[in-house]
Request: fold
Amino acid sequence: MSNARTLTALLAMTVTPAPLLGTQPTSGTAPDSLPDYASGCLQGSPLPDCVSFWIVEWQRSTALVRPSWTDPGFGEDPPETEAPAAMLEWTVGYMSNRSDRWALGGAVSLGFATDLGITGFRARARRWLNPSLSLSVETGLARSTALRGAYARGSGPSVGLRLDADDNVAVFARYDRVKAIPLGHAGSMPPGGHHEYLRLGAGVGGKAALIGTGVMLGVMTAVGVIFFGGST
Reply:
């Protein structure tokens, strides 16, 4: 009888695990509930999907407000000249999720502001409205020539607001105020001071921005080969 009781107790211990064993995973098992944190995501996403992510944007904007001036040196009735409205920009930067709601970072922009060059350095704060939609405020330094041959590249404060959807598409509004640095001889220079821009624009980000940039560079390379190849 005692042997039967002993065998029954051993079977009970084998079939029914101890409470501690039931609440702790074994060393060879990774619990599915643990998030897979990622750094340097190409498409931005809040925690826990991304700890940090890249800003890769390709965007175009038009100036609702832009500088204009009277061009001297054309007699008694000089013409009125306006800075170009359209601007094409590429932006590269990096952001870090500081919480499940906020991300902080910065970016540098390269584009055509009448000539190719750096168009701005800006810090950015992003508020995640939901996992796929975010609202960002950016501020920093803008750079522009206003018009090649008339002004040198000036700098000044910049502030903007942008709405991103999955870092695939975005719309934005931005105010830039840059110093106007006239070129030319005394008496024939356009006026100095400051130039103000109010821009509205849209763009693509992440993989779409990289693909679009690659396609554009390919077209430009092909045109250059045809043009210079035909002129030799």
Remarks:
- The chain has a mean pLDDT of 82.
- The helical segments are 2-15, 19-23, 206-231.
- Residues 206-231 form the longest helix (26 residues).
